[in-house]
Each structure stands twice: as C-alpha cells, then as structure tokens.
Amino acid sequence: MDSLHQEPDDEVWRPSTSAEPLGSPEGAELAPSGTPAEAPEPSTHPGVSIHETPFERLAPGYVGSERVGNGLATAFVGTLTLALLSIGVFRGEWTEDAWPWLISAGALLTLAIGLHGWFWPPQVLHHTRYRLGPRALEIRRGVVVRRWIAVPRSRIQHTDVSSGPIQRRFDTATLTVNTAGTTNASIGLSGLRSRRADELRDELMAGLERADDDGV
Amino acid sequence: MEFEPRSGMEANAAEPSAQDLQAPPPESAEATSASAETRVRRQHPSALIFDLVQTLRSLFVPGLAVIFVSRGDEFGWEFYAMVAVVPVAVIQVTRYLTLRYELRSTELVLRQGLFNRNERHIPFDRIQDIDTRQSPIHRLLGVAGVRLRTATDGAPEAELTALTSQAIAELRRAIQGARGNAATERAPSESDAHAESGDLEAPDSPRRAPRLGLSARDLLTLSLVRNRGLLALAATLGIAGQYGILDRVTDLPFLDALKNIPGIGELAGFGFVGFGFVFLVLLSPLISIPWTFLRYGNFKLELDGEHLRIEKGLWTRTSLALPRRRIQRLSIVEGPLHRLFGVVSVYAINAGRSGADPGATGGSELVPILERHLVDAFLRTFTPEFQVQGEWRPPHPRARQRLRRGALIAPVVLGLLLAKPLGLWALAVTALLLAYSLPSAKREADWLAWQVTEDKVASRVGAYVRRTIIAPVSKLQTATERESVLDRRWGMRHLLLDTAGGLGVRPLELRLMEAKETQRLREALSVRVDDSDFRW
Q1: Residues A163, A172: contact at Cβ < 8 Å?
Q2: Which residues of chain B fall short of a pLDDT of 70?
Q3: pLDDT tens profile B127-147
Q4: B412 neighbors B432 (Cβ within 8 angstroms)
Q5: What's residue B34's pLDDT?
Q6: CB neighbours of residue B228 within 10 Å
Q7: Each residue of A132-167: b (16+ CB within 10 Å) or e?
Q8: Which residues of chain A lie closer than 8 angstroms to B521, CB-CB?
Q9: Treating both helix axes as pointing N-terminal to C-terminal, what angle do B46-58 and B60-70 enclose, rounded to 10 degrees?
Q10: Cβ-based neighbours of B426, under 8 Å, separated by 6 or more
C-alpha cells in the first residue's frame, strides 16, 4: 500500500530514463511494430514500465459518504414531489384520474434515485483503482463506460484536497489534480482516506518541486 | 503617411535574431531608450473616434430593434434606453483622455481611469501575440489598432485602438528585444522558402524568410469552397421573409397575369420563388468572391524567427503574430468542396486564444486554402514540429464492421419507433437515413488512421469533413483510454490525448483501436510526456 515512498528508487530511476536516447528499446516499444503484446500485469524490466506501483482502491468509507449524500438528495426529491402533489391534490387542480398516476410517477422517481444512490457507490468503489507511479498518476474508473486516465507528473499544475462535511464524517477526501489541458483540465478522485489524499498531494508536489529544481 | 505594416515587420524580421544573439534584455532597453527613456505615450487622437464608432456599432442592432418595435408612433422606453449611449460615450472620452502607456525596460505599463485609477503592468516576455487591425480609415490616418495577448484565455490583455506605425514599431521592438532568449532558438531552414503561385516575396526583404501568399486563382477557389455568398443570401432571404417582402414579390402584377393562365394557376408563385432561389445560388459567387478577396486579399503567411505572422485583408487588414511554440495542435481540414478542388485548410489550436478567429473554434487559421500536395512542404517550412513522417497505421481490423453496425442502429431504431404512426413511410425514413449513415461509416472507416512517432502523435478522423490532427508529444497533457460497452464487446478502445487550448476544443482522439494497442500507447506516452518539457 505504502510502496509509494520509494524515494531512492525514484531518484535513481527518473534521470536514467530521461537520459535514455529516443529510439531505445522503449522507443521500439512505442513504435507500433510487431512486438508481442505485453500482458497488462507487472512487467519485469525495472525502470521502463510504470507497472511497479500496485493499484490501490478507494477507502470503504466512500460508499458510506456517498450513500448519506444520495440519501439526503433522495429525501429532498421525495419531499418536493410529495409537497407538489399535495398542493395539486388539495387545490383540486388535477382531476381524480390524474393524481394516482402523478403520485406513482413521483414515487417511482424517488425510488429510482434512492436505489441508484444506494447501489451505485459500491459499483464505483469496485471499479475505481488508482496508483501514483514514478511517472504518472493513473486512475481507472467507470462502471459502464470505462476510462484509464494517465496524468503525467510533470503535467500537473496544482492539486487540491477537499473534504465536505459528510466526507469528513467518513474520513474521506477528494483529490483534484489540475493540468493545463482542456477536457481533462481537472481530474477529481473522491473517496480517498483523508490521510492518503494528503500523502498523495504531498508526494505529487514534492515530485513537481524536484522537477523544477532540475530546471525542467 | 501610409502605414506600411510590412516595413515595420521586415525590420523586425531582420533584427531580432541578429540583434538578440549578442543583445540580452538590458541592451534592448537601451534600444528603446534611444528615443526616450520610459517616456509616457498616448494613443493617436483618432482612437477617440474609433472607440465611439465601435460603441455605436455595438448599439446598431438594439437601435434597429428600437426603430422596429416603436413603430414610429411614439417614443417608448426603448428610445430612452438609447439615451444610455451618452454615458457610454462619456466613459470612452475619459478612457481616451486618461489612457497612457509607458515602455519600460522589461514591461509595459498601462494606466487609465479618472476616479478609479488602474495601472497594469505587463512584462514583455509574457506578451504572446501582437495583433494589428487596420481598416481603410485607419490606413487613411496612418494608424492601426493593436491587441496584446498573454497566455490568459479570453479577452486581450491590452487593447489600443489607434497607434501610429512608429509607435507600433517601437512597441514591437521593445517586446521582441525583451524576448531575446526565445528568438535565439534555432531559426528554421531558409532553403525551402516555398511560396505558392503569386508569391509576395518583397524585393527589399533583407533576409529571405519563408513566406506564403495566395494567388488570385487560390482566392477564387477559396471563395467557391467557402460559399459565404450563399449564406449571406440565405440570411437575406430569411430576413426578407420575415418582413413580408417575399409575399410582395409573389404578388407582382405579371404573376397575376400568369395565374390566370389555366393549368399553371397557383403554382406560378412557387415556381417564381423556386426559380429565384436557383438564380440566387448561381449568383452567390458574385457575393462570395468579392467577400473573399476583401477578407483574404494580399494574404501573407511569414515565418519571422519564432513567430508565424499572418496578414490578410484588402479592406480591413489584420496582422497577427503567433509564437510557434504556443501552437498546441495543428488541424488540417478537408471538406467535400475542398476535395473537389484538391485543397485543404490549416488551423492551429493554441493556448490562450479561444475563438480569436471566428472562422475556427478555439484556433487560428494558418492558411485558408492550400493545395494538398503542398501540405508536406508547408509543414516542413513553417511548423517543422508538426511534420508527420511516420507511417499511418490502421485502426482495429474490425473498425469498419463496428462503424457499419453503429450506422445501422439509429436508423433502424428510429424506423421501428415510427412504424406505428407512419406505417410504411417509416421504411422510407429508415432507408433515407441509411443512405446517409452507411456511406458515412464507410468513408470514416476508410479515413481513420493514426500514428505515434517518437515526438508526435497524429490522428485522422471524420467522414465527410476529414481532419488530420497533429500534436507534438511535448504538448500533450493527459492520456485517457475510453471503452464503452459496445467497444468492450468488439475489443476496441479509444485513446484521448488532451492538450491545452481554447474552449470547446475536443481532445485529440485515436479512435477504434485495439485495446492492447491503446494500453501500450497510453503507458509509453505518459512516460514520454512526463519526460518532455511543457511550456505554454
């Protein structure tokens, strides 16, 4: 889990690869020749791939905090539906044929939101993985449409850690990584343990400062 | 005197690299001080007129609305709203009277305001673009409008409505002098100073900088490729229809006579309008050709050290200087009409310039029209960092089937949904949609390709409008693989590569690739991107 703090490894590794001339084995790998497709699992040659760091999962507290938040949203929608319906019914603006339908539609909507709010977070938890490798922050996410995002460390402009009141109850936080890009200008990763989020931020910032010291 | 944007520019083209090689910033300050050390300068007096005209123009449409709404009977609140012009005018007079700028050794200081004094310091090395704009009236007065841009998105950092040519030249010198280090980077090869027919090689050019001009024939092709005339006519017709002018046309007396002829009857009116429309379509080049000549006449693209300088326009002449290293992505666009004439358009997407050119979202138009066989030479000459030399690689072998399947889905589903209300007509709707989507899928599959070389990524996308998008690895930001449910079934993924750029810019996408390929590329690219040095 805490294999990220491999300072010496990182120190040695970074310059060695950047000094490597383009067109080296790594370049050959990049050029889409008939190289045998490598398995996605940890590769054996050190210093070349970014498979060294194992993927981590979100904190289990993510599910709880999301469910509480979604529960509040459901309660809000439910109350709103009920209030609107009762106003309509009592003022007699709807005919008697219509209101059972409206009530069931409102109930269904509330139920759908509630069920989604209850069953979705575990799915997200199950499908989200991240790792902070020596080169990039990688995030795997998406229950239906899957995404594998790689944010190269040198492209990170700044990072934020935020934690709302519900998140704080569950000791989770959101790490937001900002790049100079457009569509992925800011990438949020919520459901980290607060301490882990802080660690990640510090780690990312340390990497950036190091890079700046190098004059990069 | 006549403002000659070229004279000032040529001087710059020659000086900065020569001068900056031995002259670091401090000395450039001396160059400025030759005239007067940190002298406070003001705009040309005509700036006041231009500002006011600009305001009046921005009030023109609301003004028209007022005229139409109030119907001339009496002046309603709309009229009094127009009185708002007065304070705006007062504000502009004060702006003119109080605006002063000062060229210091490393920065431009802009002061304005009467009650709320505003002082803005813009370091020269942060100024990215110097755009000038010169309408005939500007030219008559020997002035030009200037916009200074930094990497910040949106509005220009400083806008000066009217400066004399000397003042602009001085400003350019100060900025380019301060940016010495950028200009010392390797100058591009001058050997392939290639220019299209009708080139604009100035005889007095002290150093042969590569440049590209457009001949009359190019402009003619351009006007046909982008038929603005048709658009203008369509808009005119729309407005005419709105105000009942069309009805009046169809009620012309001789049409009445026609209507009385048995057999033709009521169709005459429609026929007349239809004929008129065809006539207008044929006539549209008469509008679009002059429009193109006025807008792109005397077009010139020039490589000036680390800048690309684009000048165009006969009526209002615009000039913009684009630092090459700020180009994030290049997009070569080829629509159906382009193909007919064997030409392409080249756009650049650059950081901090969202929608500066209305013709291209989030980018600048480098060349409105370029013969296709010249694209390679163009890239080699003007933007070598975007020259693609690798081999185009096909997408997933089953991408074609996948696209065809996708093209079937929407029309068939729509046909089924419409089956009940429309009956057999639903079949016709489906057939019509398929007649569009299936060839479109085929075209897309034929065009889709990608390449990743050591320092560049390029992708070909689009069906009818084909795009080739090129980005250097050093400009990439994040790399994302995306896989929808359908993709998963077909074993495909898309690789989306994000770059900086204006609003509404979509990521560079390598579409429908083998899942293993995207994964390998994403990992290799993220390492390579991390190694490379990103600068705005």
Answers
A1: yes
A2: 1-38, 60-85, 128, 150-156, 178-208, 229, 238-273, 351-363, 502-504, 536
A3: 767 788 888 888 888 899 888
A4: no
A5: 41
A6: 17
A7: bbbbbbbbebbeeebbbbbbbbbbbeebebebeebb
A8: 30, 32
A9: 40
A10: B415, B416, B418, B419
Cα–Cα distance, A142 to A147 (Å, whole number): 6
In the predicted structure, residue A43 carries a pLDDT above the cut 60: no
Over residues B108-121, the pLDDT tens digits come to: 888 888 777 888 88
Q: How far apart are the first and last CA of chain B?
A: 38
Whole-angstrom CA distances from A33 to A28, B192, B452, B453 are 7, 32, 11, 11
**A158 has a pLDDT exceeding 80:** yes
DSSP chain A: --TT--HHHHHHHHHHHHHSPTTSHHHHHHTTSSPPPPPSS--SSTTT-S-SSPPEE--THHHHHHHHHHHHHHHHHHHHHHHHHHHHHHTT-S-TTHHHHHHHHHHHHHHHHHHHHHHHHHHHHHH-EEEE-SSEEEEEE-SSSEEEEEEEGGGEEEEEEE--HHHHHTTEEEEEEEES-STTSEEEEEEEEHHHHHHHHHHHHHHHHHHHHTT-
Query: With an 8 Å Cβ cutoff, is B502 touching chain A?
Result: yes
Asked if B272 reaches chain A (Cβ–Cβ under 8 Å), the answer is: no
Question: What sign does the dihedral A80-A81-A84-A89 (CA atoms) show?
Answer: negative
User: Is B334 within 8 Å of B465 (Cβ atoms)?
Assistant: yes
| Residues whose CB is less than 8 angstroms from the CB of residue B56 and which lie 6 or more positions away in sequence, other chains included | B85
Q: Do B480 and A149 touch (CB under 8 A)?
A: yes
C-alpha distance from residue B95 to each of A199, B190, B422 (Å) = 51, 45, 64
SS3 B113: coil
Q: What is the CA radius of gyration of chain B?
A: 28
* Contact check, Cβ <8 Å, A183/B496: yes
The rounded distance, in Å, linking the Cα atoms of B335 and B462 is: 10
Q: Return the number of other C-beta atoms located less than 10 Å from residue B265's C-beta.
A: 11
Is A208 near chain B, with CB under 8 Å?
no
Residue B2 CB contacts under 8 Å (≥ 6 apart), including other chains: B139, B142
**E-strand spans in B275-382?**
300-304, 307-312, 317-323, 327-334, 343-350, 364-371
* Helix then strand then coil, % of chain B, to nearest 5: 50, 25, 30
Residue B310 neighbours by CB under 8 Å, 6+ apart: B299, B300, B301, B302, B318, B319, B320, B321, B322, B364, B365, B366
Exposure string over B507-523, b if 16+ CB within 10 A, otherwise e:
bbbbbbbbbebbbbbbb
Mean pLDDT of A59-76: 95
Residue pointed to by tokens 């309660």: A75
Q: Determine whether the interchain pair B499/A18 forms a contact, defined as Cβ–Cβ distance below 8 Å.
A: no
Pick the residue from chain B with its C-alpha nearest to A179: B477
* Minimal Cβ distance to B530: which of A32, A154, A182: A154
DSSP B393: B
**Distance (Å) of CA A139 to CA A134, A142, A193, B22, B154:** 14, 10, 16, 48, 31
B308-311 long-range Cβ contacts below 8 angstroms, 24+ apart: B308/B348, B308/B366, B308/B382, B308/B383, B309/B9, B310/B364, B310/B365, B310/B366, B311/B5, B311/B6
Rounded Cα–Cα distance for residues B147 and B319 (Å): 10
Angle at A156 between CA A154 and CA A161, to 5 degrees: 140
Unique residue bearing structure tokens 């002259």: B23
On whether ipTM exceeds 0.85, the answer is no
Best mutation target among A30, A137, A159 (most B Cβ atoms within 10 Å) is: A30
Share of chain B above pLDDT 70, in %: 70
Distance from CA of A68 to the nearest CA of B (A): 29
Hey, what amino acid is at A93?
A: E
